[in-house]
Amino acid sequence: MMGNASNELVQMSDAAIAKQIGQYIRHVRVKQNRTQAQLAEMAGLNRWTISQIENGESITLASLIQILRAIDSLHVLNAFEFSEEISPLEYAKLKKQQKVRARSTRKPEKDKDDLGW
Predict the structure, then answer these.
(1) Selecting from 1.10.260.40, 1.20.1290.10, 1.10.10.10, 3.40.50.1110, what CATH number does the domain 8-79 have?
(2) What are the DSSP calls for 8-19, one per residue?
(3) What is the pLDDT of residues 45-68, one digit of tens each?
(4) Rounded CA separation 55/47 (Å)
(5) What's the CA gap between 92 and 116, in Å, rounded?
(6) Are the CB atoms for 71 and 32 separated by under 8 Å?
(7) Cα 97 to Cα 81: distance, rounded to the nearest angstrom
(8) Which of 39, 50, 67, 91 shows the smallest number of beta carbons within 10 Å?
């Protein structure tokens, strides 16, 4: 079902997505029994900013992060986590570069007692 949610988001306008984010924030705030003013104070923002996002208006990314932190919802940003993966071909190239030569490139020293005959 996660695929359906992604498809629905792709088809939504930016304004509709902003409205959905605002509804989420309002839902969590009300569930936590907090007023907009209380959330604003917790987030270090003004109440107008909370009202703005809850009504689907644009706010800064920094403000959104502050609000999500205040309502203990930073987990919604987990979708942005990634780890850099190296392709098997790149890994093989790196390993090849790291290989230590098996044989020495120095010429063996002649035995001092050997007269070369």
Answers:
(1) 1.10.260.40
(2) HHHHS-HHHHHH
(3) 999 999 999 999 999 999 999 999
(4) 12
(5) 45
(6) yes
(7) 30
(8) 91
